[in-house]
Amino acid sequence: MEYRPLGRTGVSVSQLCLGAMMFGAFGNSDHDESVQIIHKALDAGINFIDTADGYSAGESEEILGKALAGGRRENTVLAVKFGVPFGDDDPNHRGASRRWITEAVEGSLRRLQTDWIDLYQVGVPDAATDIDETLAALSDLVTAGKIRSFGTSKLPASEIVEARWTAERRGHGLIRSEQSPYNMLTRAAEYDLLPTCRRYGMGVMAYSPLAGGWLTGKYRKGHEISGPGSPARQRRFPALYDAALPANAAKLDAADALGALADEAGLTLVQLAVAFVVRHPAVTSAIIGPRTMDHLAGYLAADGVDLPAEVLDRIDAIVPPAATINVADNMWSLGTPALSAANRRR
Fold first, then answer.
1. Checking CA distances to 86, which of 54, 267, 287, 308 falls within 20 to 30 Å?
2. Is 219 a catalytic residue?
């Protein structure tokens, strides 16, 4: 397993980060099996795990707490996101206010059975809270020893720059990482976000390297598209794999071409997809999200795969640099709501 610096934190993390979204009711509700998957990942050399308090309303964190007990926590770099609505209708149980940050971190520490979080991340941009308040609250948690550093997720490049300037003027800690969608079908991050993070020495955790399942290899022309294996995800995203939708038809065309390229290169499409993500010089780790032990094995097979220039060129011919097949996959609805049709035109 290759280890890379997490920005300028001085911490080294594995190029594969174990994403814990699928542990719990949203994915695998069997706690014992989920713990076994986590242990297998750690034994394979992964030392970086990402979760969120909103994953299955805290159940993911509880599973991780069980898995890291007995001495495994000390050698694990633990990243946690906060900010999405947390399982109830309280309007203050979300966002990036000081009020919620100081409450949310205590809940995560308790569920994770740990005294500190290595990387605490604003899970979604919060336009209702002044960035100065968010940075101040997070900096105070660093001083208190409850977190070691902090980062963001889905934050546009312009707001990363704004946060940097605010921190320097106000004497707050710096944002050390960004977590954004990035894969062979979703490449908008290459235009501005990844260069900005690299310029500022920030770590980048690329999530959805398999494009929500489109790059697993099972979505090929001539094969029935069944959608995600998790019943919870099927209910939450009923149209995500509807081949009749124009955006999905275009993704199927690209995924099929990429699958053919993987076949020619002697790789699985999962190997090609993960190797593509970690190949970018701005990316620290690709977040892998297995629901089963077989899923984990498929991801681990990508470790050590290095794509030659000619393969990268052929990927570019299928999906050009900085292009995204379905613009919705950029998650701009969360990070850049100004790009929504209503905000653009009215």
1. 287
2. no
